[in-house]
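Hi U.,

Before I forget, here's the chain from the pilot set. I'm dumping it here mostly so it's searchable later in email.
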Amino acid sequence: MAFVKKEWKDRFTEFAGRRRLTDVETGAETVVDVERDEGLVSQAGDAFSAVNMNDLEQRIYDALEPQNITADSAKYADNAGHAQTAEAAAYADSAGSVAYGNVTGRPTFSLSDTTLTITL
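Structure:
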C-alpha cells in the first residue's frame, strides 16, 4: 500500500488555555483559564505545528516513493549478506515477482536514509 500524505492543520480556538473543571463528588463546574508556568526552560524543543508535521509527511512521502530511489544511492543486503544495487534487486519478471535462490514472490521495499531494504 502506498503512503498517503495527510495535510496537518493548526488548531485555532477562542480560548486556547480555558478548561472546565468538574467536582466529581458534587458535579459543580468551574471554568478556569490555564497558562504554563514551567520555570526555567532549558530547551524549548520543536513546536507541534502544521508546518512541522507537513514537512515530516513530505519527507516520509519522498523517502517511500519508488521513483525517488536511484540504483546508485540505494543498496540492500541479500539473503547471503551480499551488498546489491537497487538496479540488480529490481530485476523482476513481467508479473513483478523475483526468484532468488529458493525464495520467490513479490518484494516489499523500505528505505531509511540511503539504505534500501527489499524483503521477499
